[in-house]
Amino acid sequence: MKKMYRGVWLLCLILLTSCSSQSNTSLAPIAAAARAHITLVVCLDALPGYPSNDFQQATNFVADYLASAIRPNEDGFSVFINLITTNSYAPAAAVQHFTSPALAADPTPPPKNNNVYGQQQDQQKYQTALMQAHQQIDRVKTQLAPNLAALRALHPASMSPGSEDIWGCWVKASEYFRDEHTGEKWLVLATSLANASTFNRATISLTGVHVRYINLVCQNAAQCDQNRADWGSQIRQMGVKDLIYYAPEELNQVTLFSK
User: Fold this and answer.
1) For all residues of the chain together, what is the average pLDDT?
2) How far apart are CA 119 and CA 131, in angstroms?
3) Percent of the chain at pLDDT exceeding 70
């Protein structure tokens, strides 16, 4: 009789340990609000007048932001990376284009089942579905990793000094956005605003686009304020949704689309 009780006790202990182990390893759903498809255009100043460390800081910021944006319940994103050169509209200035697919929201937990065995089965199915959803997120992150590594590895090309063609970036962005018909549109520029080019601005449409100037480098505060005022006036005439400037020391305050 004692042996039988000892066997029952050991069986209960094994079952409890097993259940406890399963509970400890259960996946939790990732709560994330729905996010529309994102089209992101990034223009990076590659001319000698723009500090290379600010260029590198900008590429790392964008790459890190995109990596953290891969999550459930989002409609994916398209990314275009363009260099600001003396001819930013030239094909050579377009250095990267990659996309990330849509990801479904995490499955919802099953309703309570008064049948203990049925509840266990429901939980197992739920955990399997959750694991498959998170594995898909990991696959997307793995697929995009080479693109983000290439973005981080970008360096300004060895170019002769010249004036920034920021208008070329605006025109290129306008064309990218024109071909993307749904979702949110974001334009991020890392530059000094020292533009010297001209363009037919009537050809540029940036209606509804969120614009962010990051790592805005200014050697002369008064000139910088004037450049902001001039650019702000022209940009708003293109129909942008909003426009915000950030200095290099303010990069940690930049918020793009929801992550």
Assistant:
1) 83
2) 18
3) 84
| Strand arrangement of the beta sheet that strand 242-245 belongs to | 94-100, 77-84, 38-45, 184-190, 210-214, 242-245
Token pair, residue 36, equals 């529309």
Q: Residue 115: its pLDDT value, please? A: 80
Q: How far is the C-alpha of 40 from the C-alpha of 35, rounded, in Å?
A: 14
In a domain, 248, yes or no: yes
Q: Are strands 210-214 and 242-245 parallel, antiparallel or unpaired?
A: parallel
Residue 249 falls within a domain, yes or no? yes
pLDDT in tens, 136-170: 999 999 999 999 999 999 987 655 566 778 888 99
For residue 59, pLDDT beyond 90: yes
**Count of domains forming the chain:** 1
Could you tell me if 243 and 236 are in contact, meaning their C-beta atoms sit under 8 angstroms apart? yes
Q: How far is CA 214 from CA 17, 86, 115, 141, 238, in A?
A: 53, 20, 57, 25, 20
> Contact at 8 Å (CB) between 191 and 156?
no
Q: Domain of 236? A: 38-104+141-253
Whole-angstrom distance, CA of residue 48 vs CA of residue 78:
29
User: Residue 70 — pLDDT band, cuts 50, 70, 90?
Assistant: very high
In a domain, 118, yes or no: no
Provide the pLDDT for residue 162.
65
With respect to residue 211, please indicate whether it lies within any of the assigned structural domains: yes
- Look up the CATH number of the domain holding residue 185: 3.40.50.410
